[in-house]
Amino acid sequence: MAKIYVVGIGPGKKGDMTFRAYDALEKSDVIIGYKTYIDLIKEYFPEKELISSPMKKEVDRCREVVEIAESGKTVSLISSGDAGIYGMAGIMLEIVPESIETEIIPGVTASNAAAATAGAPLMHDFATISLSDLLTDWDLIKKRVDLASQGDFVISLYNPKSKGRTTQIEDAAEIMLKYKSPETPVAIVRNAGREDERVTAATLGTMLEHEIDMLTVIIIGNSKTFMKNGKIITPRGYKY
Amino acid sequence: MAKIYVVGIGPGKKGDMTFRAYDALEKSDVIIGYKTYIDLIKEYFPEKELISSPMKKEVDRCREVVEIAESGKTVSLISSGDAGIYGMAGIMLEIVPESIETEIIPGVTASNAAAATAGAPLMHDFATISLSDLLTDWDLIKKRVDLASQGDFVISLYNPKSKGRTTQIEDAAEIMLKYKSPETPVAIVRNAGREDERVTAATLGTMLEHEIDMLTVIIIGNSKTFMKNGKIITPRGYKY
């Protein structure tokens, strides 16, 4: 019986993929995803039918997945990180007819991978916010950055900047500085969990001096976050 | 050379563990963790020295890890889910001397596993909040629930209730209802990613009628979250 898997393949390297994710890809006749993600997994599945799909064609990609499943094949739709966090799980479930079995397989999301590389900045309550205003009103995003800062949440920012979208991270930094100290430790992680991963420990006051792009996740600490031995740590509150 | 791994083993089943997590445990002389987590992995590593450590002894556990590493052994300290999310990564990095190499290995955290089971509720900006006031001031937690609700964040609640702590989830529900509709879809997931996983689709208005305990993660949608074919979906905003 045909089946759809929506698979979070983790940040990039096979090591951060789960056994269940790998097994789903192994069981699939077809693997489909955004080209960058197909490139990440193709060496492990050279014998599979792999379909690269362009960015901004997410709805078309899901319709293609449904067609493939309806033809009787098992198909995996992949997202990097966790498919349920700014990935393909939502739109796939919106589009798929109830008659086709669909399983969502969770993965290590980019902010978790970035946090592990930088130390342990996400150890306490945190807010995850995408700065992309392609599908979300910018005023709502700004409001969320403001409220999360007021609440002294650790803040994890996805999609902080792209070629055509450069001012959002500046506005976000300005909003956060209304409530958070400029000394707040910040992890800037590019290509988290991939071959060319790069981690920069900065502060909220200095983070805009560093290179930031679409492949970067930025984690801004709370009022208790500190640096030790080059690692960024948000304490849970244990006494020792 | 001795080394410390701090390993997120995922929610429970081996399938949701990453290859890197498994490899770290395989390479370790000793695996140490809270008893429930040791029980989850012991069948895969019957030949290893496994040390179960009681709850609320997190600092002692980390000191023991340092001692084992100083004796020349490679040791893995395990947390369920992701060690960097309310897990052991923070306190371990606070305590470990710089001379001992320490690697944090990220994992699939409980809310990601819970979300995948329930559908795709975390597809948009979300706030993760622990309702445990053991180490955090209850007024700050309430403030965070309030601000996250004002910001129309999806909210993921860890540690919603324990035997001795029963009123926090009631207070949290009341605060969320100031801003969120009682019809907001809610996923109540007990033992996410474990053998006896149970998912209940409820609403913010009815969620307190369901069983909630320490092993439960609760995900409360945003104003756009909806139910379809039994799945809870937060749309990213794609048009179709």
From TrEMBL, chains A, B:
Pathway named in the protein's UniProt entry: Cofactor biosynthesis; adenosylcobalamin biosynthesis
Keyword set, alphabetical order: Cobalamin biosynthesis, Methyltransferase, S-adenosyl-L-methionine, Transferase
Superkingdom per UniProt: Bacteria
GO biological process, any: cobalamin biosynthetic process
Domain Tetrapyrrole methylase: 3-206
Keyword S-adenosyl-L-methionine applies: yes
Pfam families, sorted: TP_methylase
CDD domains in UniProt: Precorrin_3B_C17_MT (cd11646)
InterPro entries: 4pyrrol_Mease, 4pyrrol_Methylase_sf, 4pyrrole_Mease_sub1, 4pyrrole_Mease_sub2, Cbl_synth_CobJ/CibH_dom, Precorrin_MeTrfase
Gene Ontology MF annotations: methyltransferase activity
Name recorded for this polypeptide: Precorrin-3B C17-methyltransferase
